[in-house]
Amino acid sequence: MKCVDDFRLKFNGKEYVPIIIGGMGVDISTPQLALEAARLGGIGHISDAMSLDTADRYFGTHFTRDKTRQYKDFIKIQDKTGIHFDLGAVEESTKLHVGNVMEKKRGDGLIFTNCMEKLTMNASRDTLRVRLKAALDAGIDGITLAAGLHPNSLRLIEDHPRFRDAKLGIIVSSLRALQIFLRRNAKLNRLPDYVVVEGPLAGGHLGFGMDWAKYDLKTIVAEIHQFLKTEELAIPLIAAGGIFTGSDAVSFLENGVAGVQVATRFTIAQESGLPDDVKQEYLKAGEDDIEVNQISPTGYPMRMLKNSPAIAKGLRPNCESYGYILENGKCEYLKSYYRELEQHPDGKNICIKDKTCLCTHMRNYNVWTCGHYTYRLKDTTRQLPDGTYRILGAEHIFRDYQFSKDQQILLPEE
Fold this sequence. Notes:
This protein is an alpha/beta fold.
């Protein structure tokens, strides 16, 4: 019987432990978590979501404060067309965040950044170009294009000196999405270095509709694997979404997948950015405590805990400070908020059930996104006398994926 350590993920002749920790935002996949993955010979992600606010937290900068002051006159205006990100600030914050991580990197693994393309930032093309180029300038090993993948993204950086040097990958949830991306980028003569195939059991935003339960990761992976084989395209496939044990990972690795991307079990790692009390909520959750809803203003379904504080709140939009998903001055949450404000002109007792202010709530760790198997987290650790659960280090979780067999999970010592 094999374990994950019997396989290797290969990039340009170099071998890595085929475990990738997904890029969970906002700053759930912290630098510390990514660095551990790299130290252990795998691949870790940081997230570039809300980079200005992340830089403020880590480096004491004032990007968010300055933006708030600049656009304070828009606070009571529904049309946010006039709010723009300072591209210089976006560049500087990205370089600070990425550069700091890369300077601290140790071990034989890699560190990637997860780029959520659905962060349109009221100027999607310009801001995305800056985010991507700044990450490359700061020395990131690779970039994973995710959440709102645009088929022309690579064209934004084709003139960058590291365009063919850095690892550039994409996340798709269907063969059709991959085919469109490849067709649109054919003239670049630059294939993705890897393709993450994310299934319907993943956490956070899903690449499916509310009929997600009709789909199956293994079926999608098999379709894409056959397509690549037929087209003679040697692009490594990474399976993601619902891979809870090392044995789950091996079942994919034995069938032609080059690696696996995992995240749910690392949400509660010591190195995760989630506050400890929120980690306990994840550990306490049962299967019925998890839902897929449509409260994200991005239009994508999201999987999260039902008791997430972000659900059914009436928070005033904070586009002046954040505004990361503004597009042409609009956001679905803005529409919902001002609809309710008409019914409650005093701004009190507003409860918005159909959407959430994603930027503010994600920034405050109030959107408790999670994978389908979050209810199994309690089975990976031990309960303490006070009823809480022991929080494990990323190394313990990584090694369990790497060496476990027969669906066994390595529990910490008592």
